[in-house]
Amino acid sequence: MKITYYGHSALLVETEQAKVIIDPFLSGNPNSGISPDDITVDAVLLTHGHSDHLGDAVQIAKQNDCPIFAVFELAEYCRMKGAKVKHMNIGGKHIYDAITVKYTQAFHSSSIQEGDVWIYAGQPAGILLTIEGKTLFHAGDTALFSDLRLIGERTAIDLAALPIGDMLTMGPDDALLAARWLQADKVIPLHYNTFPDIAQDAMDFCDRLRQEGIEGFPLKAGESIEI
């Protein structure tokens, strides 16, 4: 499994059998380094409806004739915008060709702004993505919560992607504890340095992970790892 980071919380996951993008905030993200026009995937996965996660999902799904996986209300919004969708909800699992997707809790909010109107986009979520026997946990935007320990106990996670930006999500201290609870030996930090209010030192965070026996990957946009 190859995982490429495109800034903020966007990850492209590739195996021989499938390609998936999660939270494709690309065209509006100064740190993405890629255009949504260049994305070729079999599915789009969304953690919640905020613009820095919904991003270019509808465009990417339409140009690839592939579905968007999202919590029910957000999936319906994407469907009304013309995309194919898979309606998910917290705790549910779906197998789609070579991809297995399970939605978990996240403690955050989820909405979409259109003009002066805010649209409810269902509950925020984390995502367990399994392809070819490898499992990635994308925590989405979340605070630290104790059931992360349960997720780690019930699922063999090969790689966890965790927000560290603070202010809008958990910060580095809480993310370090989340990594321990998830029992993942590899972690990618997400959701930092896109805006001044979420500036963090990812190298320092990964150094702290290393002291816990966890390998951290402070990827720059366009950089990849393989697991």
Tag the structure with descriptive keywords.
227 residues; alpha/beta; seven-stranded mixed β-sheet; globular; UPF0173_UPF0282_UlaG_hydrolase; UPF0173
Q: What helical percentage do the residues reach?
A: 10-25%
- Total strands: 16
Largest sheet: 7 strands, mixed
Number of helices: 6
Radius of gyration: 16 Å
Share in β-strands: 25-35%
- Stretches where pLDDT falls below 50 for ≥5 residues? none
Quick one: overall form? Answer: globular
Structure description:
With 227 residues, the chain is α/β, with parallel strands linked by helices. The strands form three sheets. A seven-stranded mixed β-sheet has the order 6-5-4-3-2-1-16. Strands 7-8-11-12-13-14-15 form a seven-stranded mixed β-sheet. The mean pLDDT is 98. Keywords: Hydrolase. InterPro entries: Metallo-B-lactamas, RibonucZ/Hydroxyglut_hydro, UPF0173, UPF0173_UPF0282_UlaG_hydrolase.
SSE arrangement:
Elements: E1 2-5, E2 11-14, E3 19-22, E4 43-45, H1 51-54, H2 57-64, E5 67-71, H3 72-80, E6 84-88, E7 93-96, E8 99-105, E9 111-114, E10 117-120, E11 125-131, E12 134-138, H4 147-154, E13 159-163, H5 172-182, E14 186-190, H6 202-211, E15 215-216, E16 224-226
Parallel strand pairs: 3-4, 4-5, 5-6, 12-13, 13-14, 14-15
Antiparallel strand pairs: 1-2, 1-16, 2-3, 7-8, 8-11, 9-10, 11-12
Characterize this entry briefly.
22% of the residues lie in helices and 31% in strands. It has 227 residues and is of the alpha/beta class. The protein has a seven-stranded mixed β-sheet. The protein has a seven-stranded mixed β-sheet with strand order 7-8-11-12-13-14-15.
